[in-house]
Design goal:
Chain A has 308 residues and is α/β, with parallel strands linked by helices. Chain A has helices at residues 42-49, 71-75, 92-100, 108-117, 131-144, 161-177, 189-192, 213-217, 227-237, 271-275, 286-293, 302-305; strands at 2-13, 16-27, 31-36, 57-62, 77-80, 149-153, 181-186, 198-203, 206-212, 220-226, 247-254, 257-263, 280-283. Chain A has twelve helices and 13 strands. In chain A, the strands form three sheets. Chain A has a six-stranded mixed sheet, with helices on both faces. Chain B is mainly α and 254 residues long. Helix content of chain B is 68%, strand content 6%. Chain B is elongated, with a radius of gyration of 23 Å. Classes of the chains: A alpha/beta (308), B mainly alpha (254). Chains A and B meet through α2 and α3 of A and α1, α2, α5 and α6 of B.
């Protein structure tokens, strides 16, 4: 059963549409990655789900209720982002203790365990923390609160790679022990893909695609090789009205050589047959796939430098 | 059974208000500390508020020095206005919306805070009369004496505290209301209202022979305690009530 449902959701700031006609649903007890480029509308969407922003048009339901200014939703949601702030007079240790009173499922042993593991200083003030430590501390709160709906907007900003990996693992372990609905927004899909079950890819305020991480890994294939062989392959084996619609990316990586990324569903034959035709077949990293899907041109940055 | 009944923890309005109230009371304890410092300083100021009256003949000279405690009140009023506006300011809103909150719980816990602060400031600024008297007594010169000694009638302190409390509430509610407009409707309108308040409230503006600045006399000039209490309570209900209504659709900027 879906826990969050958006129907033709739109959020406009004056002329600018941060979210436009977005319909989606997120299942209960899943970890969903909210992926998209800068300005794709990730934060706006999370803020609407958290009940901080009011949709301009369309319908948004969280646990069957409208989330805006809704105390029941607020009481069951934690929204971690970098603008989380705490009173100046509290030390980190105070904050853990005080914040805990708001969340009925708060797990103090996990909070304290993670706090000590990440070597946060209990007597330090929140505003004096470095960017990475701030994110770490807030991530600890996000995990330990065990809210039925846990929203994290760019939770790993500023963390070093060791801490990021520990954080992903901690989140996953606690999620398995205490299932809940988690939405993570991030740029670092490469690191996240092992813990994500679903991916919701946003592009300029609309849904580009939403599917399970497993399906997405098989969504597209890359081919590299001699330009003529590749062109022949594209002509021969691509389904669809025009071959171009199946091509996500076309890149010239050396003179006479071509690299193309093709949607798997548009391929008429299995990739085993193609491999024989001296063309290299390769899987596409999710990170790259999302970049290709949300790119304005098929050539990427190379197009800027193409002259004449 | 709906989805929300199965999965959601029940959330009680009163509990969240109480939690928010305690969270902010502890978190913003620095504000109360500032008041204490201000009141310490204001004792020094109060010694400078001496006004003298003297009469003499060829054998005897009598000088009456009188000291006023108004300065304590004035400082507390200013403190209250600043504190109440802080509570509705962006950084303070960010703090309370980082944990479980909505507009109603935010307002109601803030109103409780303002009542608490007003009670504290009202009582302390009235009690300041005691250290003030001690200090005056200590600085007396030969041939001077303190009228009434150190004795202060408890009834006077009680009445003083009550009236100070009510004024503090009134100032707090006004500042809170204007800042809510500033946050929810428009900053410009907020500034206009602040200016209007000073103009109408303290009477800086005269249009021809007509003094428009007597809004505050509605309260200041009231000689019956009962009516005064009624006017103040009516006003703060109006101001806080409007604040809640205005911000119902305000989004959280965190």
């Amino acid at each position: 059963m879906s826990e969050i449902e958006g129907l033709h959701l739109t959020k406009a700031y004056g002329e600018l549409h941060a979210i436009q006609d977005l319909s989606f649903s997120i299942e209960a007890n899943t970890i969903t990655g909210l992926i998209g480029r800068n300005g794709a509308g990730k934060t706006t969407l999370l803020k609407m789900i958290a009940g901080h922003l009011r949709p301009t048009r369309g319908e948004l339901k969280v646990f069957d209720q409208r989330p805006f200014d809704n105390l029941v939703i607020a009481g069951n949601t934690i929204f971690v982002n970098d603008s989380m702030t705490f009173p100046e007079s509290f030390t980190l240790q105070n904050i853990l203790k005080e914040v805990a009173t708001f969340y009925p499922n708060w797990n103090q042993s996990i909070a304290q365990g993670l706090f000590d593991y990440f070597q946060l200083n209990p007597h330090q003030c929140h505003s004096n923390l470095s960017k990475g430590s701030k994110s770490t501390f807030q991530a600890v709160i996000g995990i330990a609160s065990r809210c039925p709906l846990t929203l994290m907007d760019e939770p790993t900003t500023g963390m070093d790679s060791a801490v990021r990996k520990d954080f992903y693992r901690a989140l996953l372990k606690d999620y398995i022990e205490y299932p809940r609905t988690v939405i993570l927004s991030s740029h670092l899909l490469g690191e996240l893909e092992d813990i994500l079950e679903d991916i919701l890819l946003l592009d300029q305020g609309t849904k580009k695609l939403q599917m399970s991480t497993l399906d997405m890994k098989q969504y597209a294939l890359g081919f590299r090789g001699n330009a003529q062989a590749i062109e022949a392959l594209l002509r021969g084996h691509l389904r669809g009205d025009t071959p171009e619609e199946g091509i996500l990316r076309r890149e010239e990586f050396a003179k006479g050589s071509l690299y193309v990324v093709v949607k798997a569903e548009n391929l008429a034959v299995g990739y085993e047959r193609i491999r024989r035709q001296d063309v290299e077949v390769m899987p596409i990293a999710l990170d790259d796939l999302c970049n290709y899907l949300t790119a304005k041109t098929k050539g990427g940055i190379d197009d800027v430098f193409k002259r004449g | 059974m709906s989805l929300s009944e199965v999965r959601l923890a029940p959330v009680s309005l009163q509990q969240i208000i109480a939690k928010q109230y305690l969270y902010k009371l502890k978190g913003h304890s620095g504000l109360v500390f500032i008041l204490v410092v201000i009141q310490m300083l204001s004792i020094l100021f109060s010694l400078g508020t001496r006004s003298s009256m003297s009469s003499s003949n060829e054998f005897l000279q009598v000088i009456v020095n009188s000291y006023s405690g108004e300065i304590f009140l004035i400082f507390s009023f200013i403190w209250m206005v600043v504190v109440a506006s802080f509570l509705v300011s962006q950084p303070y809103q960010s703090i309370e919306f980082s944990v479980v909150n909505n507009r109603v719980t935010s307002h109601l816990s803030n109103i409780l805070l303002i009542f608490t602060y007003a009670a504290f400031a009202g009582i302390t600024s009235t009690l300041m009369a005691i250290p003030q008297r001690v200090l005056i007594l200590m600085t007396l010169e030969e041939s001077e004496f303190l009228f009434g000694g150190l004795q202060i009638v408890p009834g006077d302190l009680l009445l003083g505290s009550l009236v100070a409390f009510l004024y503090l509430l009134l100032f707090g509610a006004t500042a809170y209301f204007i800042q809510t407009i500033s946050l929810s409707l428009s900053k410009k309108l907020g500034i206009i209202l602040w200016i209007t308040l000073f103009a109408f409230g303290f009477g800086f503006i005269r249009i021809f022979a007509f003094q428009i600045g007597n809004l505050l006399n509605f309260y200041f000039r009231e000689s019956s305690l009962g009516l005064f209490v009624g006017k103040v309570i009516g006003s703060i209900i109006l101001l806080f009530g409007l604040s809640i209504l205005i911000s119902q659709r305000t989004e959280v900027k965190r």
